[in-house]
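note to self — DONT lose this again. spent like an hour looking for the file last time. sequence + predicted structure for the chain T wanted, 133 res
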Amino acid sequence: MRSTVNEDGEASGTVYGWTGVQKTDDGQTIEKKRIINKREYNSLFNNRDKSRHIVRQKRISFLWNIQSFTIHEYQEPVSDICILHAQVQSTLGSEGVHDLDVSIPPFLEVDKLLGDSEEDKKHYGAYHISLRD
C-alpha cells in the first residue's frame, strides 16, 4: 500500500501494489509489479506469510541534477536503516551499455555504497529484514 502526501503533508490518495518474485533456472530474479484494488490487497494481506514481519517504509522521491532518487526510510520492523536509491541514465557506446556515474546531492550523507552482494542483501534487503527470529 502506498499513500501519497501532498506538499502540505496531507494524504492525497492511496495506491495498492503487488510484487511477485520469480527465480529462473539460470539464477536470475524477475519481479512483476502491478497495481491492485483495495479488495485484492485485503485478500492478499489476510493470506500473507505470517512467519515474516510486515516491512513498513517511508519513501521520498525527488529529482536532482538530472537524476532520479528515492530515499527508503525503514520504519518497521527496523528503524535504523535508510537507503538512497539512485537511477541514472545509461549510455550506449562502442563497447556496449554503460551507466553514468551517480552524482550524490551535497545535502545528503552516504555512509556506505551498497551493491548486489549477498552480504548487502542480507543486511539491507526487505526480504531478509522481514524474517522473524
